[in-house]
Design goal:
The complex is a heterodimer.
Chain A: E1 4-13, E2 17-27, E3 32-36, H1 43-51, E4 58-63, E5 66-70, E6 75-76, E7 84-87, H2 99-109, H3 114-127, H4 143-155, E8 161-165, H5 173-190, E9 193-198, H6 201-207, E10 210-215, E11 218-223, H7 225-230, H8 235-240, E12 247-256, E13 259-263, E14 268-273, E15 282-289, E16 294-297, E17 301-310, E18 314-321, E19 324-331, E20 341-346, E21 351-355, E22 361-369
Parallel strand pairs in A: 3-9, 3-10, 7-8, 8-9
Antiparallel strand pairs in A: 1-2, 1-4, 4-5, 5-6, 10-11, 12-13, 12-15, 13-14, 14-22, 15-21, 16-20, 17-18, 17-20, 18-19, 21-22
Helix pairs in contact in A: 2-3, 2-4, 3-4
Chain B: H1 2-13, H2 15-41, H3 50-53, H4 63-69, H5 74-109, H6 115-127, H7 132-141, H8 144-147, H9 152-157, H10 163-166, H11 169-194, H12 197-205, H13 210-239, H14 242-248, H15 256-265, H16 269-294, H17 319-344, H18 361-364, H19 383-416, H20 421-435, H21 438-449, H22 463-488, H23 491-499, H24 504-515, H25 517-532, H26 549-559, H27 562-587, H28 591-597
Helix pairs in contact in B: 2-19, 2-20, 2-21, 5-11, 5-13, 5-15, 6-11, 6-17, 7-14, 7-17, 11-13, 11-14, 12-13, 13-16, 15-16, 16-21, 17-27, 19-20, 19-22, 19-25, 20-22, 22-25, 23-24, 25-27, 26-27
The chains are: A alpha+beta, B mainly alpha.
Chain lengths: ~375, ~600
């Protein structure tokens, strides 16, 4: 099973617009990698370049040691020679073929014997639980069923690499959840390498072994999802991951010994880095606070409840300290009276300090309120 | 009782219900009753038939049916024209789809050169009158044995054109096929263009060979477009009159339309009405067969998507040859015919292609004052030409305003009451004139309105009957585009106005019409262009005093005034093209969009 390696891959559409900018990444055998980013960031283009449906402007792509694309060596293996499966966003089922035919068509191309094709189609339909629709046309299936057929068609030839382009985005919320679990199981049972494009951070979080977060064609961070969530490289990554998203508070910092006093204008906190870092005596920072680390209690900073949205399992709050509004999550079935006054403090050591100017992460640490 | 009355009151308080009832009444009177009247006409004796039927005028007779179906004339009166109509229509479909389809593929999927110019030119035959190519063919390939002079081809090469090539079945098929090739291009090209590229990419990834992909994926997906092209071309070819008249008559090759024209203008209108019925039956059959074939299981609704990344097929070494060949074919369809008209219209003596034989007198020459019918002023100085041009413009605009307005209102009321039986009946009725070939519809109107009908005086020979029939004939296309555009407009937009208390007229003029402006303009443009170049619909209803340009052209052609007919033809084409492009430029509406909506 192959490892996919992208070396300096660049794609330019027309003049000037860079869809993908010198992308370097390695997708190891058996991984489930999500390409994540806002729309138009180049994630689909990247996937299509791996598949060979799109030709990179520059760079090289390797499947193990085999070069499948290189602009310098003039290599460009066509998609059918790359041994991949591709799942399209809109499924791309052939409307004039039955479910059976849709699945068997590819196997016929590979010159499988008839009885083997038949057995394989029946087997895959059973796994995907679409046996009873085998003689129907795509138009006669619901969205979820079409999705399953598309997956079955892609999986039937046992591809070593499965590329998926936002396959769940056309499904309703409940079905999407079911299919997520199913995809994760499929990854385990097939043992193939999955590359998955999505703009939904929670999908990337829940599914993948590694997430590649892309912004405007540039790779921002490539690491396991929980690391991306906990230790974002920059403000963009921190902001993109998590719902409700991270709070960002502008503050002025004065270094005192091995900690920093951060003044937010409305309240002051002491930030103690988890590990030793060199800090300037005075600097402008952005403090990143995950909503779940704001703990509503009897002491700490006083705040007004701007909104309280209980969902049963937890309640999402918007707390205003003068004009600084922070979102917070209180776990359990509790509701707060709107416009009432509460107090909160900070717990744990997962607060992120960013440089205000570069928006890059400086370090993680813990917070203590001083006034 | 009170309850019932209230119900009726609520029903008529909705403007679209009032419209639907009005449409029902109007269409019953203008389509259903005339049709019944024509069936009745196949059983009675007409004034011109007195001497052959030997019965009093207006009495019941089975003479026409017996003569058409069970006499020694059946073959030449009925069966031969039916066979000829069917054969030419089928082969025209083949020609249109082969040429239009390959052009569509070349344009949307290959790296053909000069695509922009070629696509513009390729649409030309559709905008031009249907006989344009027929006349051009005649100019090129006529031969001395049939028309007394040779065509350009013989003049250039010295070769005598065989009669089968110059006249009759073969040229009718080629010319009709070429005329409808733009249809095939627009419909098939539309699907190829909108077709989800992922469908083909999915096949590539599953290791499908190029040819197999073309045969098993691309072709089946464009099949619905091919089928709708077939029905359009078939019914169009079946209804076409000018082309078989120009190319078939000289060798006595009759199709249903030309036979019908001969019968109604001759001494046996009763048989003509039977032929009209036959044409209607044939086109209804085609419609049903088509609907059966398209079927419902394999819905093609999913065949749209982002098509930004269609992979272009590289023609490689064949690129230049194929591009040149395509350009040649396109020029033959679009520009060369115009050149031949210009050339033929300046020939002093037909068939002698020499500079010394050229004259502008057929355009701007003065009448010599001789007492001969051929001694006429050039068409640019001829008051008769200007009168017919005026008539044509007046008629086409009237039909366009009538059909466009009614079509839009019909579309509005049909869509607003969708699912209701009344709406369904009105929709079918507005569509029904589409199933009646032009000449058959004309025959129906002739039978219906040539005598007093209640309060309506005889309309034969009046402008009114031409305006009426044009409006009715073009109603299907206008109401189709009306229905399609209204379907895309959600009722909430109007409901927002209702809630704020905006009255109906204001809702229409201030909300709906501005939103639908471009489709409404197309709804007017299409009937106008069709009206300007219409011949078969008007030809049997026109008398010498309300001649239009197209019938003047036919008159000149029948008389053998080649130069005049070519000049008038050029005039019609120029008028149609100028108006089409002006409207297109001004409003953004286009004839291509109209075809897509059909």
């Amino acid at each position: 099973m192959p490892t996919i390696r992208l070396v300096n891959v660049t794609k330019q559409f027309g003049k000037g617009s860079l869809a993908v900018d010198r992308l370097n990444m390695e997708i190891k055998d058996g991984e489930f990698v999500s390409l994540l980013g806002p729309s138009g960031c180049g994630k689909t283009t990247t996937l299509r370049m791996i598949a060979g449906l799109e030709t990179p402007t520059e760079g090289e792509i390797y499947f193990d040691d085999e070069c499948v694309f290189s602009d310098e060596k003039g290599i460009n293996l066509s998609p059918d020679k790359r041994n991949i499966g591709f799942l399209f966003q809109n499924y791309a089922l052939w409307p004039h073929m039955t479910v059976y035919k849709n699945i068997s068509f590819g196997l016929e191309n590979m010159k499988w014997p008839k009885d083997k094709i038949d057995a394989r189609v029946k087997e895959i339909c059973k796994t995907m639980r679409i046996e009873e629709y085998i003689n129907r046309y795509p138009a006669e299936l619901s969205g979820g069923q079409q999705q399953r057929v598309a997956i079955a068609r892609t999986l039937a030839p046992n591809p070593k690499v499965l590329l998926m382009d936002e396959p769940l985005s056309n499904l309703d919320a409940k079905l999407r959840n079911d299919m997520r679990a199913e995809l994760k199981r499929l990854h385990l049972t097939t043992g193939s390498t999955f590359v998955y494009v999505t703009h939904d951070q929670s999908e990337a979080m829940t599914l993948s072994t590694k997430v590649a977060l892309i912004k405007l064609g540039l790779l921002q961070q490539y690491c396991p999802p929980l690391q991306l969530y906990g230790e974002p490289n920059n403000v963009f990554c921190a902001d993109f991951m998590g719902n409700p998203s991270m709070n960002f508070v502008n503050c002025h910092g004065k270094t005192e010994g091995d900690h920093v006093v951060l003044n937010t204008q409305k309240f002051k906190v002491i930030f103690t880095p988890n590990e030793k870092v060199e800090l300037e005596p005075e600097h402008e920072y952005v403090l990143g606070i995950r909503p779940e680390f704001i703990h509503v209690s009897d002491e700490g900073v006083e705040a007004r409840v701007v909104s309280s949205l209980p969902s049963g399992m937890e309640t999402t709050l918007a707390l205003a300290v003068d004009d600084i509004v922070l979102s917070a999550v209180a776990f359990g079935s509790i509701d707060f009276v709107m416009d009432s006054t509460v107090r909160f403090n900070f717990e744990g050591n997962r607060y992120v300090l960013f440089d205000k100017e570069t928006e890059e992460k400086i370090c993680l640490g813990s917070l203590e309120i001083i006034e | 009782m009170k309850k019932k009355w209230n119900k009726i009151k609520t029903f008529f308080s909705k403007p679209y219900n009032v419209l639907l009832v009005l449409f029902l009444i109007m269409l019953t009177f203008l389509v259903v009753i005339p049709l019944i009247s024509m069936v009745r006409d196949t059983f009675i004796v007409h004034p011109s038939e007195k001497s052959r039927v030997h019965q009093a005028v207006g009495t019941f007779t089975t003479y026409h049916w017996l003569r058409a179906f069970a006499s020694s004339f059946s073959k030449s009166l009925l069966w031969d024209p039916i066979r000829n109509s069917i054969v030419t229509s089928i082969w025209s479909c083949v020609v249109a789809i082969l040429i239009g389809g390959s052009f569509a593929w070349l344009v949307s999927r290959s790296d053909l050169m000069w695509k922009k110019v070629l696509t513009k030119l390729f649409i030309f035959p559709y905008i031009m009158p249907s006989w344009t190519l027929a006349l051009a063919w005649k100019n090129f390939f006529k031969s001395v044995e049939i028309t007394g002079s040779n065509g350009i081809f013989t003049a250039l090469t010295g070769l005598q054109v065989p009669t089968w090539f110059g006249y009759g079945e073969f040229p009718i098929i080629v010319v009709t096929g070429l005329h409808y090739a733009p249809f095939a291009y627009i419909l098939i090209g539309g699907i190829l263009h909108n077709m989800d590229a992922n469908l083909e990419e999915a096949a590539i990834i599953l290791k499908t060979k190029r040819l197999r992909m073309f045969l098993r994926i691309t072709i089946p997906i464009v099949m619905p477009a091919v089928l709708s092209t077939i029905i359009l071309v078939f019914s169009g070819a079946m209804a076409s009159f000018a082309t078989p008249q120009f190319l078939g008559l000289p060798v006595r090759y009759f199709v249903l339309t030309t036979e019908l024209y001969a019968a109604i203008n001759g001494t046996n209108p009763g048989v003509g009405y039977i032929l009209a019925l036959v044409m209607i039956v044939l086109s209804v059959i085609i419609m049903f067969v088509n609907q059966k074939m398209i079927g419902t299981r394999k819905s093609y609704a999913t065949v749209t998507g982002k098509s930004a990344n269609i992979s272009v097929f590289h023609l490689k070494g064949m690129r230049l040859p194929i591009s040149l060949l395509t350009t040649f074919v396109v020029l033959c369809m679009s520009v060369i015919p115009l050149v031949t008209f210009a050339l033929e219209s300046v020939m002093m003596q037909t068939g002698v292609y020499k500079l010394s034989n050229m004259t502008l007198s057929f355009w701007i020459g003065q009448s010599q004052g001789h007492n001969s019918i051929q001694d006429q002023p050039g068409i640019l100085l001829n008051p008769e030409v200007y009168r017919t041009l005026g008539n044509s413009l007046k008629l086409a605009s009237t039909c366009a305003i009538g059909a466009g307005t009614l079509g839009f209102l019909a579309g509005y009321s049909i869509v607003r009451r969708r699912g209701n039986w009344l709406s369904k009946i009105v929709e079918d009725l507005t569509f029904s004139p589409y199933l009646i070939p032009s000449m058959a519809l004309a025959a129906i109107y002739l039978s219906m309105f040539s005598t007093n009908r209640g309060i309506i005086p005889s309309l034969y020979g009046t402008f009114t009957i031409l305006a009426l029939i044009g409006t009715i004939k073009y109603l299907p296309m206008a109401s189709r585009s009306g229905v399609n555009s209204m379907l895309q407009l959600s009722p909430e937009i109007e409901e927002a106005g209702i809630i704020m208390g905006v009255p109906w007229v204001k809702r229409m003029t201030r909300i709906i019409i501005p939103i639908e402006k471009s489709t409404i303009v197309s709804g007017y443009l299409l009937p106008f262009i069709s009206g300007m170049r219409e011949l078969s619909l008007f030809v049997i209803l026109i008398t010498a005093n309300n001649r239009v340009l197209t019938s003047l052209l036919l008159f000149y052609d029948e008389k053998g005034f080649t130069q005049f007919s070519n000049a008038v033809n050029l005039l019609i084409i120029v008028v149609v093209l100028v108006i089409n492009f002006t409207v297109e430029k001004l409003t953004g509406a286009s004839i291509e969009k109209g075809v897509g909506g059909n």
